[in-house]
Design a protein that fits this description.
Elements (H helix, E strand, L loop, with lengths): L2 H22 L2 H19 L2
Length: about 45
């Protein structure tokens, strides 16, 4: 991955977080964080 691609992806993530904050008060970010936590726990069980 080149630096330019990494910067673009980082900018897209930051823009997405900003939109979530502005329009949904972090609701989507919290939902995804909780689901990611459940996925990690589920994967750890099968390890």
């Amino acid at each position: 991955m080149t630096n330019q691609i990494a910067l673009v992806l980082g900018a897209l993530i930051l823009i997405g977080l900003g939109v979530d904050y502005a329009y949904h008060a972090w609701a989507n970010t919290i939902f995804l964080a909780r689901k990611l936590t459940l996925l990690i726990e589920w994967l750890a069980f099968w390890r």
